[in-house]
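Incident log, structure service

09:12 report received: a user says their structure output differs between two submissions of the same chain.
09:20 pulled the input from the user's history:
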Amino acid sequence: MEGESYKTRKVITIGIVSELTGLSERRIRYYEERKLITPERSEKGNRKYSFSDIEQLMDIANKREEGVPTQEIRQDILKEKKKKEEENERDIRKKMLRGQINAQFGLRDK
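09:34 re-ran on a clean worker, output below:
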């Protein structure tokens, strides 16, 4: 868990998520069934959420109130995830290239 942000650690139970968001546990499980949110499971099978999941649940609930279908929300989530993965890959390539250039010219990263 080293390097993991408090926002991404999945430690919050569904009951607390329900209290924090005002969403029923049933509604939260429905969003999971529709693959809009992906909690981790404890050894006993209990769902565990992160603060980032809570933010995402609130975003989903707001979109649903606006009448956005769950399928469209899921497509948006997948697009955003793909965009983040591509940005991460670009960052890694930039760091590798910078490292190769620095090694070639005997420079050090600051």
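09:41 both user submissions now match this output. Likely a transient worker issue. Closing.
09:42 reviewer note: The helical segments are 14-21, 25-33, 51-65, 70-105. The beta strands are 12-13, 40-41, 47-49.
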